[in-house]
Amino acid sequence: MTQPHALRSPYQASSEKPLLVCFSHLRWDFVWQRPQHLLSRAVKHYDVLIIEEPIFKAGIKPHMDVSTRPQGVTIAVPMLPEGLSHEDIIAEQHDLTEALIGRESNGSRVFWYYTPMAMAFSSDFECDLCVYDNMDELSLFRGASQQLLDLESALFSRCDLVFTGGMSLYEAKKNRHRSVHGFPSSIDFNHFSQARSIHPDPEDQAYIPHPRLGFFGVVDERMDIDLLAEVADLRPDWQFIMIGPVVKIDPATLPQRSNIHWLGSKHYSELPQYLSGWDVGFMNFALNEATKFISPTKTPEFLAAGVPVVSTPITDVVKPYGEKGLVEIARNAEEVVAKVETILGRPKEAWLAKVDRHLTQGSWDKTWASMHKLMLDATGETMADRPAAAPLSIYATTPAE
């Protein structure tokens, strides 16, 4: 349900929970990934408001489109007229945000940043705790600006805690702030493990023969589409199923072959059904600036689904997954073919038992609980100071993942 923009905060008559305001460059309704996993758990302890990047439409008056989601979060999207200058866009975001939450903190308020760009319009608002969940090295993505680097430096100066989306990113950022903590991608095991027992294929996959190699996720500059084409040409009898939205690259550049199937976006809830019909997961990430520090969430998701994986040598995949023998690492098309043939020819039971032993070490529940403990420690609170919430196990250390 969408509410009209109001001058008073919608949280004034809320529960005893403090307000957590998240500034995100990722849309909640895009693909289900780290922000959704964490913030859908944060609602146990906070009223969660997510302020997204603006949407521009011709002829409209600036307003904030506020709506709720079934997970218990509230989404606020600045709706702005087309043709505004950069300075006016920042000013409008500032004024709309101030009208929504107020400049001063009335009670406990946490700011949670996914994008440093939001500092341009939010730096003068008060908060009691500032968190930077640095899930990617945004400065290395296509189209990154010097302004992003400058605003990230300002965010490092302001924030109380920095969380990183992987251990290689932790190593890169640990000396930039006094309190940096590595929280690699975790796993919603119960969701993805459904793939082990689902049998009927989705309609748009049922006609595709085996063996099937599958990918799910955002298709952008981080994907090595040339590698995909090379492997598809080397093994024309293998089928490649590619699921996900195409972003920041021209869809016309995607390789077209009779054995490559671009199925488009699927809902998070549908993924186990597709994965259940795959023989091998194919993580054909390019080795470039945009992938230098990534920690792909899909690695443990493939494993929870019981799907063996071949990946290019992404640092946070090689360590720990490659070193532990959980994922096969391949550097070129010939190595991909050899690794897939190894997977297809070996028994699955011993590998799967090893996978399950590893996956018990981490979950999104544990990750959120560890983050929340650090947040309370940073504000001098303890769990006993807070209103009772649904129980979560508390882990003082970062879960190994």
Description:
With 401 residues, the chain is α/β, with parallel strands linked by helices. It contains 14 helices and 16 strands. The strands form two sheets. Strands 1, 2, 3, 4, 5, 6, 7, 8, 9 and 10 form a ten-stranded mixed β-sheet that branches. The chain has a six-stranded parallel β-sheet with strand order 13-12-11-14-15-16, sandwiched between helices. Helix 1 crosses helix 14 and helix 8 (225-234) crosses helix 12 (333-345).
Task: Describe the protein's topology.
Layout lengths: L1 E2 L15 E5 L10 H9 L4 E5 L3 E3 L5 E6 L5 E8 L4 H16 L7 E5 L5 H4 L6 E6 L11 H13 L2 E4 L2 H7 L6 E3 L6 H4 L10 H4 L5 E5 L8 H10 L4 E5 L16 E5 L6 H5 L4 E4 L14 H7 L4 E3 L3 H8 L5 E2 L3 H13 L3 H11 L4 H15 L23
Parallel strand pairs: 2-3, 2-7, 3-6, 4-6, 7-8, 8-9, 9-10, 11-12, 11-14, 12-13, 14-15, 15-16
Antiparallel strand pairs: 1-5, 5-6
Helix pairs in contact: 1-14, 8-12
